[in-house]
Amino acid sequence: MSQALGSRLTRLPIIQLRVPSLRGGLPSQQQRTPATTMKAQERDDLLATLKARFEQNMQRHRGIAWADVLQRLQSNANALKALRAMEATGGEPDVIGFDKASGTFTFCDCSLESPAGRRSLCYDAAALYARKENKPQGSAVEAAAEMGIELLTEAQYRELQALGEFDLKTSSWIRTPNDVRSLGGALFCDRRYGRVFVYHNGAQSYYAARGFRGRLSV
User: Fold this and answer.
1) CB–CB of 44/87 below 8 Å?
2) pTM of this prediction?
3) Per-position pLDDT tens, the chain of length 218
């Protein structure tokens, strides 16, 4: 890989994700949809970063060619916006799969630790709204919707962990089944002692070492 491509991997700064405040109630769909336009240089920088990461981590996507991924990305402005948000919040998205039936590629946050710009969030909007004091900045489910991605399920989280070792020092919220969420709980995962663990917490809880990982189909 050339020095120019390698340098692009650290060119985009990590930002702290901001989601709409819920102090006045749950936001409308219009409030949750940001109107942003990606400039040509931003687009080129993002694609260069994604390509460099793709080429550095071929074990995550054996048999997949970057040219095919690029073709899908170039015609999908919404996917590029979502990937930009994933990148800007420290997710380091990369291709981890291809679905032959739909012809789509799967991107996933592949940062070694839970994305730094998406931590200290409770689980979902209902939990955030119900919390009466010491509210966090937002919620994981709401932030994912704002970005245009989906939280990983437990199965998807384990699939990611089969490709490497992630969340050795942090943890990540995962999509919680309705039967657990209806009782006030939410699930999160991490990797310790060479194994992947699934835990539970109150959905209103939030921690500086817990964020969330997302997936995007392109």
Assistant:
1) no
2) 0.84
3) 434 434 444 445 555 555 544 344 434 333 344 446 788 899 999 999 999 999 999 999 999 999 999 999 998 999 999 999 999 999 999 999 999 999 999 999 999 999 999 999 999 999 999 999 999 999 999 999 999 999 999 999 999 999 999 999 999 999 999 999 999 999 999 999 999 999 999 999 999 999 999 999 99
Opening angle at CA 22, ends 38 and 215, nearest 5: 45
Residues 85 and 212 sit within 8 Å (Cβ to Cβ): no
User: Locate tokens 């709980």: which residue?
Assistant: 185
Alpha-carbon dihedral sign for residues 134, 140, 144, 147:
positive
Are 206 and 193 spatial neighbours (Cβ–Cβ below 8 Å)?
no
What SS3 class is residue 214? strand
